[in-house]
Each structure stands twice: as structure tokens, then as C-alpha cells.
Give the backbone structure.
Amino acid sequence: MDVPLNPFLNLRRTQRHAPVAAAMPARSDVVVVGAGLIGLSAAWRLAEGGRTVTVLERETVGAGASLAATGMLAPAAEHEPGSDPLLPLALDSLARWPGFRDALQAASGIGIDYREEGTLVLAIGRDEVERLRFRHDLQIRSGLRAQWLSGPEVRAREPGLRPGITAGLHCAADHQVDPSLVMAALVRACLNAGVTIVEGCPVEALDWSGDRVTGVRTNLGAVTADLVLLASGAWSGEAGLLPEALSLPVRPLRGQSLALRTTARTGTLGHMVWTEQVHMAPKGDGHLIVGATVEDCGFVPGVTAGGIYALLEGARRVLPGIEEMAVEAVWSGFRPTSDDDAPIIDVLAPGLIVATGHHRNGYLLAPATADAVADLAANGALPDYARAFGLARFRRAPALRASA
């Protein structure tokens, strides 16, 4: 069986942006390193504010984590012990999403399949029910909306689930988007705003004048800039680009996912569904996305038999209909994960900003991050809602701990 590996090309061929390789400009107000979700969101925001922006991407748009993601905007389902410091930023960014969605769809002409049905978090058996009860108590103490459901109440909402479902939580405020559509819309919105996007252009060095960054050098030439934004995801922590004193505590965590094709006969889900093993997200075009493994294996690409087996078995445990669904795509990506699993948004040096380390909350946090970068670019200071996420926190205790 020929199973495709690239989710963007194989799930959204008709939405794939036109080639964006452009002539390298000699100068730009802002250079963004990385054409993923965070880099493009910030580039679009900065260009809308009147700056000339060039985005440089080492591979192709979204190749790191952005097109491998599920697209969850799920602060309630994600909330776990130790993640309280991240919760205000997560809720702030979720509140920004409707405006971000409307502006992005208007600027691009592309719908992004924004869905508001909420998340069902499921439990099977006594042990899982006890852990789910603990999660629910934590959500309520943190002021989150989460409704406890009995097994029959869960199955009334999702009739295709197995009868063995014992209990569940309905997190009504959790939403989702389709990553491939968001990325296609961001590319189009950026191009319409005058952003230059250059693919296949790794940044090899920063140019410095004294303690100030004045541009970048690449395999295609140099670009001078007033501001450089480092938004290269899991690659942000690689040695060589930054001096040791500015090194970033960011590493890749591989995640494997797959897409199933649903039909009228197989049925599908009406909500995002989470279990202790997997999460499943129905998309508007009939795909059901199943994800995602968490593997600390460095930049080792590809999918494994064990990873795909774990995803399928975890999904089949609660949704027997997947046995009849065709596997349309499998893929892996690299989550950019900081030492405390929370984003790093900061000024590293005059002329150099960083926005990285979003772990598995990139889509949720994109609007707030883009706005914070715009504030940093304008006044050199983080807004109040993002102030806790600078690099200095890693030099003090106790460490901030976000959801794993």
C-alpha cells in the first residue's frame, strides 16, 4: 500500500500555496527566520503594521511542526498539574482566536475550518475514571469550563464510541482548526500584505555591529534588517547561530500522526476526542486526524511501525469504526519544546527577538504570540500577558512548568 508521508501535500493538494521562492532582497525592515505557524503569524502582523518583512525558511513552509499538528485550541483538555503559569496566556490567546480567524480569512480568502464543538476527554475502567476525576477537579479549581459526563451521556453525544466508555469530560470552550488550511491562509495573507517568503534558504549566521544584530547571512546571500525574529521552532536551540550566552533551551520532540478517511458507512466524530493514549480530531473534509506520539529522539525523521500501531490501537480502543477507515497519510514532525514546555518570547539582543518553544500549543498560542512580537518590535517590551515567558525565567527558581 502506498501511504503518503506529507500531510500538507496529500491532505490539501488544492490548498497548497503557489511556489513562494522569491528573489532575496538586500534589505528588509524585518527578517523572520522560519516559515512555520509562529513565524508567518508574526510576519503577517508586522506587515499589516506597515513594515517590510522577509521570511527565510530552511526547507518549505510549515515543514517542522506546523503541518504535522492537529490544530487543537484546547486549554482545558491540555490543563495538567503544574501548568497553571501557562493557563492565563492560553486563555488570553484563545479569546483572540475569533478575531484572528476573521482577519485571516478576510485577508486570504481561505476558510480555516474553525470548529467549536469542544473536546470530550474519555475514561475506560476504574483507574482511568479516578485520574479523570482528578483532572476535572483541577480544571474546576483553575476556573475552566468542564462538564462531567457519565458513560451513557458520553455515548449520547458520540454514538460511535464503544459501550465500554465509563465517563468523560466535555470541555466546551476548546476549539480546533485545520492546520493545512491555516498555513495556506497565512501564506496567502502574507503575500497579499507584501511579505517576501524564500524557501530553501537556511540562515547560516547573524550579522552583528557591536552588540546589535543588523541582519543575516544565508546560502543565497545576506540581508540587512532593523530587526531579526528567530522563529525557527525546534531548530531555534541548535548550536552555531547564537552565541553561547544567548543559547536557547529548546529541543525537538518528535510526534507521529495519521489521517483516516471517513465515509457515511464508517461514521466519524462530532467532537475532538481525547483518551490517555491518543487524541482524535474530525476535520470538515471528512478526515479524522489521530495523534500524536511524544518521542525524545532528536531530529530523527520518519514514522515507525510502533508509533503507528500505538495510534491505531489507541483509537480503536474507543472508536471501533476506525477498522473500516482508509489510512490516507502518516507523518511525523518536531515539536519545539523548551525546558519547561512553555514558549520563549523575548528580546535576546538589540535587533534580535525570539518566539519559539511552544511545544504542542503552537496553534492555541499563535495569536497572542504574534501580538506580543508586534509589541516587542514597537516598544522593546513584552505586554503584561506575555511577560512571564522571557528567557530570564530559566535563570531563576522555581521553574515554570507547562503542560507536557
Remarks:
- Residues 87-108 form the longest helix (22 residues).
- The chain has two domains: 7-12+20-68+180-249+340-395, 116-174+252-338.
- Residues 148 and 311 are 26 Å apart (CA to CA).
